[in-house]
Amino acid sequence: MTKLDINVNDLKSGVLGLVVALVEIIKEVLRLEAMRRMEGGSLTEEELERLGEALMELDAAIEKLKVEQGIVDSVKAVRDGLDSVVDDFLDTMLNPGRWTQQAHQEHSLGAE
User: Fold this and answer.
1) What is the pTM assigned to this prediction?
2) Of the candidates 62, 55, 63, which has an alpha carbon nearest to the alpha carbon of residue 34?
3) CA distances from residue 49 to 1, 36, 37, 53, 84 in whole angstroms, order as listed
4) Gap between the Cα atoms of 15 and 28, Å rounded
5) What residue segments make up the domains of the chain, in order of their start?
6) Which of 13, 29, 78, 105 could form a disulfide with 21 if both were Cys (CB 3.0 to 4.6 A apart)?
7) Contact 102, 42 (CB under 8 A)
8) Minimal CA–CA distance to 78: which of 3, 25, 35?
9) What is the mean pLDDT of the chain?
10) C-alpha distance from residue 43 to each of 27, 32, 34, 52, 89 (Å)
11) Contact call for residues 74 and 16 (beta carbons, < 8 A)
């Protein structure tokens, strides 16, 4: 039986980086929703001000956490990886002909 060697610091950094990256994505969605509501006129000036302050405080808290925990690079790596996956998915959905061609090429390579 092989012993599994896990570096606890790397694991902590990776998991925390993933969680913070997901919080950043959720924050961006909230910001987009706030802009949509603002443009639609469904938020009062007071609500807009409170929401803007809350988002700025969240930005500051996230940045502070990333620096304090030493996960700035880890979060960036997770975000870059997720961006790449999303870009590939969107490309596949928007360009189905390219996806079909790529699938045929991969199938041909696997048959060799």
Assistant:
1) 0.68
2) 55
3) 60, 15, 13, 6, 34
4) 20
5) 18-111
6) 78
7) no
8) 25
9) 84
10) 18, 13, 8, 12, 33
11) yes
Q: How many CA atoms lie within 13 A of 30 on its CB side?
A: 15
Distance CA(71)–CA(100), nearest Å, equals: 39
Tokens linked to 2: 């092989």
Q: In angstroms, rounded to a whole number, what is the distance separating the alpha carbons of residues 93 and 99? A: 8
If pLDDT is split at 50, 70 and 90, which confidence band does 5 have? low
What is the Cα–Cα distance from 72 to 65, expressed in whole angstroms?
9
Q: Which amino acid is at 36?
A: R
**Do residues 20 and 75 touch, judged by C-beta distance below 8 A?**
yes
Q: Please, are residues 78 and 18 in contact by the beta-carbon 8 Å criterion?
A: yes
